[in-house]
Amino acid sequence: MTIDLKNNTIYHIDANRNKKVHKAISTSFSQIEVLNDGRILVLENYYKYENEQKSNLYCLNQNIEIEWFLPTGIDEDGVDNYVGFTTNGNQIFANTWNCFRVEIDIENGEIINKQFTK
What we know:
It holds the Pfam family DUF7957. The protein is mainly beta. It has a single domain (about 1-115), classed as Thrombin, subunit H (Beta Barrel). It contains no helices and 13 strands. The strands form four sheets. The chain has a four-stranded antiparallel β-sheet, with no helix packed on it.
């Protein structure tokens, strides 16, 4: 697998030597982390991110296909995009623009816990 941050592209050659490509959906890659199981967490830049109410934080499987989008918080101003994430062993946390910290179930992309942190 190759992660090309300059061109906002992730490349993967599968077992049959087929090239798989994933480009940033709306903006640019802000943060990427390859997890222990080979899946990839991708955070796109939140500023001007647009993807039909889907969040800017998502998980790719080993075939570079989108497995899930983390649910977004929606308030009166619109979508509350994510600005960063951290990992601690098997725990993954993400922070939103509106100061919420969420714990993520990495298996299905659901939010386990949500706390206001401001």
